[in-house]
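Following the same procedure, sequence and fold were stored together, as reproduced here.

>
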Amino acid sequence: MKLPFYLHYHFTLFLSIQTQLCFSLATQMLVLPLKTQEIPSGSLRRPPNKLHFHHNVTLTVSLTVGTPPQNVTMVLDTGSELSWLQCNSTHISRPTFHPTLSTSYSPINCSSPICTTRTQDFSIPASCDPNNLCHAILSYADASSSEGNLAADTFYVGESGLPGTIFGCMDSSSSSNLEEDSKTTGLMGMNRGSLSFVSQMGFPKFSYCISGSDLSGVLLLGDANFTWFLPLNYTPLIKISTPLPYFNRVAYTVQLEGIRVSEKLLPLPKSIFEPDHTGAGQTMVDSGTQFTFLLGPAYTALRNEYLNQTTGILRVLEDPNFVFQGAMDLCYLVPLNQTVLPALPAVSLVFQGAEMTVSGDRLLYRVSGEVRGNDTVHCFTFGNSDLMGIEAYVIGNHHQENVWMEYDLERSRIGFAQVQCDLAGQRFGL
């Protein structure tokens, strides 16, 4: 059964805003240090604005909303469109935005063009509630959901505010990750939809770099040219104007053309990576998904070749009942006293015009708390989309570590280059 893809293992950013820094949406640069709390394992052309962050599984942005400003913390998600805040104060287990305390808060009427036309890419169409307000239901394939009304208020980034920012003021939600919910007020959508935060702010591009060593990183909002970078390799964003049932038109979709293990290109036809007549089979780059997922035939070919090339290097966990996160069924046993993994064959994702190479520690993920005798369990960081019931390829944030990722909205392309992200942060004075 085919399902539309809205899967997000939320990757969370904690932005701590320095009020002494001046920010103008039109002309100036903002540097925001980012702080994070680790989510426990098992819990499910304007100058750039530089943001420093730490990360583990989720990235959350802390900013202020309303008049007078209220502090909120939002999950940053490039795979979602509508930003939303939890507005029901009866949810004492999580932070809440209080619309009645904001004089700039304004609900959206369901007859407004915002409700009737700009919500066209929502997975569930917007509707009218009994008070004639625009009602939205957001659902995700990880079984989480949120429901409430569209509204407008002033969102502040640094010292400058953007009046009339559209968001969802949600009065109910369900989640498979209560630990994460207890730390966040809502979600910040950053995809290509007209109601996403980056679209409403009008940035021509944004970039980020995630360190794989010290859980830090850099996020830039806006345009920038850097002479100290290696040149970025660009791959075009794919657009399909015709609505298709399983194609997410506002996702950051690129064209995957092949997969290589070490120097061996897997014998897969390019057609296997192309969306079919229903839109199933697109390749999305998503900061909100932790790992990378491939459709069944591509995953099976990669799994078999990786098994073949790691024979004699790693011991396979022979347990058919153990599938990490429901989609990763290739796991290995590593002795408890072994602190460094052996040299492993790299995996390269070949895109139109660019490649992304996954190597070293990014290839295997230690499953916290999983011990078999004197061994820890490490799983291959590519999963099977078919086991998740999703019809898409997804490039997750784990494989974006130490890669400069640029989302160029103006030229409709994504650029990336290998870089030491901790050093990149130092170059920005973070």
